[in-house]
Design brief:
Elements: H1 7-21, H2 25-28, H3 33-37, H4 39-79
Helix pairs in contact: 1-4
């Protein structure tokens, strides 16, 4: 996470989005106060896994698109000779 400067802001935005979207009320109503105290740790763990995974996946799809365009260009060049 520390390698990329914008990861901190992305993590914060994702944390807010997760906390606003997901209903964590059932954890507090289960009767164990320790679980409700760990919600921040759970969300942090999810963001630290999800952000690099999404970036890797997005980069892979972009690289694949670049590769496909390069192949089309090469085939076009070769077909005209």
């Amino acid at each position: 996470m520390a390698k990329v400067a914008h990861m901190g802001s992305v993590e914060k935005k994702m944390t807010v989005a997760i906390k606003e979207t997901v209903d964590f009320g059932w954890i507090g109503s289960s009767g164990c106060s320790l679980h409700s105290q760990k919600i921040d740790d759970i969300v942090r763990g999810v963001t630290r896994i999800a952000i690099p995974w999404w970036c890797k996946r997005k980069n892979r799809s972009l690289n694949e698109a670049k590769r496909q365009r390069a192949i089309k260009r090469k085939l076009k060049i070769l077909s005209h000779k």
